[in-house]
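[User] At your convenience, examine this fold.
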Amino acid sequence: MRLILIFIIFFFQINAQSKEFWKTIKGIEHENYYENVGVGIKKVLINGKKKKLKFTAREFFPKSTKTTKKEGLCKKWRIQEVSLDEKYVWKKYALNDCMPCIDKGSGYICSYPYFEVNYRSELFGKYWDSNFSYLTEVEDLIDDGTKEISMAINLGNREQIVLSNRQLKLTDSTASFFWSHIRKYNTKLRKIVSERSKSKPVPLYSSFRLVFNRLSENINQLIKNKGELKLREKDLKILFLVEPSATITKFQTRD
């Protein structure tokens, strides 16, 4: 019964994100974490024609997760990976990922992830989200094919700072560029963006780049090894330097 409930949690969240139907294949119980595996069909426009592609989704989260409805179904950390024909499309790492508080009624979220990192490959722009089609034109950041790394950090009930890194090819070399923007949502569920600042390049702050790159590398290792990130306040202060309106006093871990 416990694993069945976990399956429902997993595919409810994946389905909410992709708006496609996902089917459970299996659940695996590891020593310190659970793994859920599923497949989903997504209609994709290829060469002007709609084709159905079969994606594989995996989710990982700690065994310490409270899985009863009254406890909010919150995970200290959560890893999601989606692949196509065994090739990685995107992967995400999140802290404090929760489901709706069932006992409080429909549409009420206990808490939304306060820190998320997305790793996107070229396939993400080609087959998952056409808004990221530019990923076919940038260089690899990681040898696994990652084209973009993006961090989203909660600043308040309806606001996030978003930081991203891409590597562009110059005339005789390649260079990493960082961008930032603030986005606001219509509700604290953070589903529909109501306002978004213009993306701007991050100045050449060596401290910012060191922190961003260190966190990205550490989180990528945690995705491989399945563990919890210890997010430090001093790192957040450095990241927030790039957006004057973002202050550490506004950072919050719960709605």
